[in-house]
Amino acid sequence: MGYFGDIHKIPVEWTGGFPDRKDYPVDDCQTFIWWIFTLSGCKLANKTGVDAFIWGTDKYTPEQLEGFNPRALLFYDSSAGWSFREKGASYWGDIIQPIRECIDKYNYCLQTFPSVEIWVGYLEQFWRDRYLKNNPEWANLLEQKNRFDWLRATFKINTQWKENILKETLSPERVKFLYDSNGAAWPMAYYHHQGADILGNKSIGRQNCNIVLANVRGAATTYNKKSFFTADPYPCWIKHQYSPEEYEQFLYAGYFGGADIIGVQCGDFFVRDLPNPAGVKILEFAKFTKTHPLRGKQVIKIGIVRGFGDMWSFIYCPGSDELETNMFSDNKDNADYNLLDIFYPEFGDYKHTNPDRWFTGTPYGDIDMLPWDAPLEKLKEYSLIIYTGINAMDDKQYEKLKEYVKQGGKLIMACGHLQKEGGDILTNFDPADSKEEIIERDIFRNDVSDLFGVEIGNKEGDIYRLKISDAQVVSEINNQPLIVKKSTGKGEAYLFATKHLTTTKQGEQEARRIIKQMADNISLIEFSPKSEWLQYFIQKKDDIYILSFLNHGRMKYPAGNGPDYGIYKGAITLKFDLPQDCEAFEVNTTDMSLKSIPVYKRNNKTAFNISVDKKTEIVIGPAGKTANEFFHSGKR
Question: Does pTM top 0.90 for this prediction?
Answer without folding.
Answer: yes
